Amino acid sequence: MGRPKALLPYGASTFSRLLIQTFHRAGFSRPTVVVGHDPGPLVAHLCDLGVRFVCNRRWPLGQMSSLQAAIRSCPPGTDGILVALADQPGLRPSTIRRVIAAHRKNPRDILIASVRGRSGHPVFFPKGFFRDLLAAPIQHGARWVIQKNPAARRVVATSDPAVVRDIDTPAEFRKLK
Fold it and tell me: pTM, whole model, 2 decimals?
């Protein structure tokens, strides 16, 4: 994209501020934000929103290294991790609540939000999968863990189109706007 996706404007805000506000509206009082390359601008941009920052010094290795940094930072007693992406603008609080409700019913399962049969994010990984996520080949990412454990995979159907939204190119960003 040529600039940090988390700071891209969306409506009257930015991708990252809207996502954090969505987590707040869904009931998360202090979501965790993993920062990597040049974290200063993002930290300054979000510091008033009551988030916990985790620095991923291995950011050049990609998205999986950020998930691993988040897992390593989890406080004792954490029962799992809910993963959403910064370039997923417009995610609804109801989607997050739906995945968390599914976790309460299926506490040992990996829960993957979907819309119209397409899987996306957020994804909930119970603590029982942390070891696998930390050992996963960095180039394969979390999908490796999901594919390795098909019996534990559950899809959580939603009507939220942001579940499969992923803005990776300037053209996709222009189309979104």
Answer: 0.93
